[in-house]
TrEMBL record:
SUPFAM superfamilies: Osmotin, thaumatin-like protein. It holds the Pfam family Thaumatin. It comes from the Eukaryota. It comes from Morella rubra. This is Thaumatin-like protein.
Length: 226
């Protein structure tokens, strides 16, 4: 048996596998809506959740740009191919990318600066399903966006099954905040989202009131229709 640094290679591989398994975060996704939600996760894939059903995902430490969202009004064939009215993910049940707006996002960056997790709910891609994102193994606070945004969506942002972000509709820096230098001044549409869900991101630079932290190693629950 080959050795590396005094340890057999086989034992080294087993040790590293154990490290990987113990340095991971559990994300429980629960559908409390009265309708079916096709949950999607990056990384993680996708799952149909009928009312009351749950799905558990394991995400490795150090994962960044991780996100969970709900897809609505979907239809898939026996091979998992189809389409969703909101949040569609490359026309696949087992999601392999990011969703098509509008979709309410739960976002994570795990085990980052100062051994903390960073998480948020984002409306930067619009809104389709109410969300609650809460820690389950730490005392830090969670975040919720459960307002009736679809029902009160401004006329120019309305779309079947959801409420578009102004960036999706107008595609200008005033609404997309793709550059700095005052490009993210509040406007009637960002103010609408912020007033409806004060703790959620209303634009990509809305960090001061919308980013939350927990100690690394915390597990979380994402609830549709809390």
């Amino acid at each position: 048996m080959a050795f590396t640094g005094g340890r057999p290679v086989g034992l080294s591989l087993l040790f590293c596998l154990f490290c990987t398994l113990t340095h991971a975060v559990n994300l429980d996704v629960v559908n409390q809506c009265s309708y079916t939600v096709w949950a999607a996760a990056k990384p993680g894939g996708g799952r149909q959740l009928d009312p009351g059903q749950a799905w558990s995902i394991t995400v490795a430490f150090g994962s960044t740009l991780a996100r969970i969202w709900g897809r609505t009004n979907c239809s898939f064939d026996g091979n998992g191919r189809g389409q969703c009215q909101t949040g569609d993910c490359n026309k696949l049940l087992d999601c392999q990318g990011y969703g098509t707006p509008p979709n309410t996002l739960a976002e994570f960056a795990l085990n980052q600066t100062n051994n903390e997790d960073f998480f948020d709910i984002s409306l930067v891609d619009g809104f389709n399903v109410p969300l609650d994102l809460s820690p389950t193994t730490s005392a830090c606070r969670g975040v919720r966006c459960a307002a009736d945004i679809n029902g009160q969506c401004p006329e120019k942002l309305r779309t079947p099954g959801g409420c578009n972000s102004p960036c999706t509709v107008f595609k200008t820096n005033q609404y997309c905040c793709t550059t700095g230098s005052g490009g993210c001044a509040p406007n009637e549409y960002s103010s609408f989202f912020k007033n409806m869900c004060p703790d959620a991101y209303s634009n990509s630079q809305d960090d001061q009131t919308s980013g939350f932290t927990c100690p690394s190693g915390t597990n979380y629950r994402v609830v549709f229709c809390p």
